[in-house]
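Service request form, structural biology core

Requester: graduate student, group of Dr. S.
Request type: structure prediction, single chain
Budget code: on file
Notes: please return the result as structure tokens.

Sequence provided:
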Amino acid sequence: MDGLFDIDAGGSGQPPDARRTTGGGTLAGNTHASAPLAVRMRPRTLDELVGQQHLLATGSPLRRLIEGDQPMSLLLWGPPGTGKTTIASIVSQQTNRRFVEVSAVAAGVKEVRAAIDAARAELARGGQETVLFVDEVHRFTKAQQDALLPGVENRWVTLVAATTENPFFSVISPLLSRSLLLTLEPLTDDDIRGVIAGAVTDERGLADAARVDQAAMDHLVRLAGGDARRALTYLEAAAGAVAAEGPGGESAVITLEATETAVDRAAVRYDRQGDQHYDVTSAFIKSIRGSDADAALHYLARMVEAGEDPRFIARRLVILASEDIGLADPTALTTAVAAAQAVQLIGMPEGRLNLAQATIALALAPKSNAVIKAIDAASADVRSGKIGPVPSHLRDAHYGGSKKLGHGKGYRYAHDAPYGIAEQQYAPDVVLDATYYRPTTLGAEAGVRDRWERIRRLVRGTKA
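Core staff response, request fulfilled:
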């Protein structure tokens, strides 16, 4: 059956080489020496798993499934290279269950039902329970996901499904409600350093045939972007380039130059904790403020290529939308927030498109700093002590006895006034004449300026 792989130590008619492997599909037959480094270095136990400490506590669902051999269906959600397939591999090795993998890319409803029927038949004759691993489950259609439900609901299989997309959007509700959702976090830089260092010394990896200098290590960590698989893929490429130069001497050292050549990516001089971080970020914001879309895209690319947290970039755009554009383009904040939500939803590398679109839109938008000047001026008055009592007609008049205190007396309901604007005092006496918001004549704020001037005259009863 295309897209369906069954690994059974007890002998289920599978080829002998398949029965000796530790998993199915992407997990099957990949323990040989020529397998990718990322596959050879896959952790074999939970204790070898890098990161995800929030999932590894004693008594956690993951430990109960693997160490306690308790049946439960899991939905693993996280970015690429954070350990979803690894967890499935550990389940296949450390539990007393048959392990079957269904490829969400190649399998159809027929293969899904066949896997579940086989698992049910195995249970009926007193055999082993079955772990059904579905990678990239979000690629399944609704009908394919529906086909999983009987097996999960009746526990004919223990489902372990992995997805890089938000399961609340990409997985059907009945399947989501029947599975325990575990969220995997991006690996930290220190996690990635540990993965690389382990691969250099481990017998399954480079076995100390080469070492990585500090500059090359930093470059590999930046390129990885929290993805262990990517880090090991790049390390393997760099090690191969060094080995091709010949044995011994400097050839045994993976240098920055060798790494740049092997992965065809120049090292971006950018320290997320140092001056480059602040300098590039500052230049990025000032380029958007200055309406230079090309310069802004350059600095955006530098941050993205260096592995900057895209959520940080998105937050800066949201701030800028109000600080430097405001009501000159009322859609700017909507654009920035939408980009931030998109980045959170789909992750990288595709999220760079959303960041780029927002960067260009904000750079080309008309600019106004009237919003930040208005709130700064109001805050300055408050900090200086200009905090007068709320006018009595604006005070809460809904509780017993409030009217005896004069609360609400004389209040004019704005909707009953012409144009929906009632002439009355809103500000405390101490700041009655204060003017905080001073709209510019740029972009849409020019229309806002005219409207605000007319409104102020109506509210305060002044003439033009």
